[in-house]
Amino acid sequence: MAAATGYPYPDPPDEGKWSVCIHCGMCLDACPTYQEEKLEHQSPRGRVYLIKAAGEGRIGLDEGLYDPVFQCLDCRACETACPSGVQVGALIEEARGQLHQAMPPRGWKGMVSRLFLRHIFPKPERLHFLGKLLRFYQRSGLQAAARKLGLLSLLPDHLRGMEAVLPEIPEAPSRKRLPKVSPARGERRYRVALLTGCVMDVVYGGINEATVRVLTRNGCDVVIPERQRCCGALQVHAGDRETAKELARQNIDAFLDAGVDRVIVNAAGCGSAMQEYGELLAGDPEYREKAARLAGMVQDVASFLDEIGYEPPSGRVNGTVTYHEACHLAHGQRVRQQPRKLLKSIPGLTLVEMPDAARCCGSAGVYNLTHPDMAGRLLERKVDDIPEGVDYVAMGNPGCMLQIAMGIHERGGRERVVHTVELLDEAYRREGMPEEEVAAAVEAPARGVSEPRDEGLIEELIRLLGKDAVLFRKEDLLAYECDAYTLEKAQPRAVVFPKDTEETAEVVRLLNRMKIPFIPRGAGTGLSGGATPRGGEVIISLARMNRLLSVDLPNRIAVVQPGYINLHLTQAVSDRGYYYAPDPSSQQACTIGGNVGENAGGAHCLKYGVTTNHVLGIKVVLPDGEVAELGGLPDTPGYDLVGLFVGSEGTMGIVTEITVRLMKKPEGVRTVLALFDRVEDASEAVSDIIAAGILPAALEMMDTLAIEAVEKGTFPVGYPRDVEAVLLVEVDGVEAGLEEQIRRIVDVCRKHRVREVRPAASEEERARWWANRKTAFGAVGTLSPDYLVQDGVIPRSRLPEVLARVAEIGKEKGVRIANVFHAGDGNLHPLILFDSRVPGKTERAIQAGSAILKVCVDVGGSITGEHGVGLEKREEMKYLLTEEELEVQTAVREVFNPEDLCNPGKMLPRPARCAEVKKHAKDQDSGG
């Protein structure tokens, strides 16, 4: 689209960019300057409106446009919030280019700007000389003298603050210390180049060196192109686009000539600027194509490591860390979760989320120098957000590091500001370090994570189990990075497949001796992350321990290995008139061992109970490798240790054999289908069926959205799309009484304005109804690419109220929610639908899930009925239990698992959240 005529200079703002803005105001809440000032012209839509007005000739290129455009942080938060995808950042930068030519900086500010942006930063030798001067100032005694004599008071406040936290300048910049090519350790996977940058090169050179070590550790040859220059981000930010273009051309030549697969950047602003070279040089016929090609090769280091499947470290970095999202990493490059994944994979390190982690710190290129007042106000808010008591504040941008370090220093804080890659590098470097040295690194070590790795681990595992029972190649491990809860993922160190109790115990003894954490895993169908690694654990897969060991029908007992499929047990004894009662929706895939870990239920648990009601005994390998037999055939006196282990989610040991109770098939079974126009009527019918003294074997409900999903799925049955609820009611028992129960159920439904109610006409129709219901979870894939299922439990009498609140939460968070649940026992399964490709949707889905669980607890229920706590709901435990109760739970776990090696980090909240738990307990005591 042709540029508007109100801009006389080359490279003007493009009308095609501002015309997309519909002025909806969705950007207002995201804009830091608008939130501080509440001025429309200091908002993204206000700035776009003014840029459009200037293009149309309604305002001139003067102060009226200059101040709003240069007051912008160019943080790009508005772009993340904008529903129409307006390129606000590009419009701002193009408008600055026009203003830079119409109103060039004058006076001392103009002189300083030209000196640094045109004559120092673009010239590496001059920048390096400046570094030498700063080092001389720091080491010669001049710095101490200036501070003692109060000479620093002559500096502006912001510069004085920066001087106080400026790191010790290295003797030489990193590009002079690093080899031209650093070879990969082990097999070479990639050849990459590293942008050493300006500030990063001179001030934070150690980060560049750490980046090279991490990359070579992960199979990369790392090239440092000699002809590389400043990326041009500062120049673009200041409006000097011509200087930025010349720097871009030099970098394009330098990096394309290096013959590399990727260009790795560890500074958020630099990476974002280089990824926009294609747009910057779109009007240059010689460099247009090359600019676009290089832009596609540029990648942030955390994003790159996550993409290639980096090797999780085994060295420990004890402590807690919070993560600040640098603007041009989160909004410019859309890199948000990858740095968190790196941090979570570091043994000993606990990630504590920072509230509003993406809030701008006020650094923004040279913004903290040109607009120190606004930058200072934003910094205050950022430092307020740092969680109390953390050891590290990690981030991915040098400007943010200097800015936030200054804010912490001014508050007298002790938090250490680090680059994310520094912590990963430190973990790699600590591999093999004695535990006492690691424990001394910080005051509060975390527990339950990997000790230094023994390089002979894989060889030892192969010796114990054979090579066909050990996976260790990255491509083989990828499928084990999560279970059916896919929102958290990390790669294990290895996966092993023992075939019996003895082999399991041998593996556990080895891992205990090496202090390597391990995770038992069944079929990976769990919905709470119970079998998901945090990074570096060994997964002990029980999938090959899948035999039916014995059946004793006269005593109605069977003994199975943990990998035996739930439905297979019923199929094995069905022709003789028996079945296994617990029937989760995934029973055709889930294992009985997994059911034991989660205390799974199913559609028929209303009458027959959950897994713990059907387990008589277990054989278990404890975390130290000892084998224990609990319960069994006789009625064992003493404490119910079987009940303690069932539902412990693999945190107390690995169950290797299970003795279960079999049930005699009922003489008759009847199933009723009821269709309701109002979900409230269906909910009230559920309560009245139970109140009438009828105990159904199952009482299941689906709402409109769930009906839409199953009707689009593999097993449609022809439900009307306009009903609000489908109710399935099943009764079983002696044939003589079933018809009377059916008549009473039909009467209750009619009392509550049912549209249609009838029993199944045949066993075939009944089977179709149940196949339809049991595929509901999977069928939501017809509606949404991603879903999150919750598992709260509520009193039946509160069903209408809670379902209404669930609908409200869906609207508040902007997500659709389908409801499929065991209505008889109040076990809700809200399916929260979202698209993880859409920024922010995953976070909103998680927030919606947490809010639903809070509602469940508030009405007298619980956060889980059968899916377990796992990783997903561990922080929501604070809704249910006080600090003292959590301490008791931890103490019980430690009796069996004192070193937290067995499935670490599951069920109980992270230690860093104790303050939150304590506050919740206090609120409960005070009625708050």
Strand order of the largest sheet: 24-21-23-22-26-27-25
What gyration radius follows from the Cα positions, in whole Å?
31 Å
| Name of the top-level CATH class of the largest domain | Mainly Alpha
Number of domains: 7
The multimeric state of the shown protein is single chain
For the record, the CATH architecture of the largest domain stands as: Up-down Bundle
The termini sit apart by 58 Å
Low-pLDDT sequence parts = 437-455, 912-928
Number of helices: 43
Largest sheet: 7 strands, antiparallel
The CATH topology of the largest domain:
Glutathione S-transferase Yfyf (Class Pi), Chain A, domain 2
Q: Assign a percent range to the helix content.
A: 40-55%
Form type = globular
In total, the number of strands is: 27
By helix and strand content, what is the structural category?
Answer: alpha/beta
| Mean pLDDT level | 88
Which range does the strand content fall in?
Answer: 5-15%
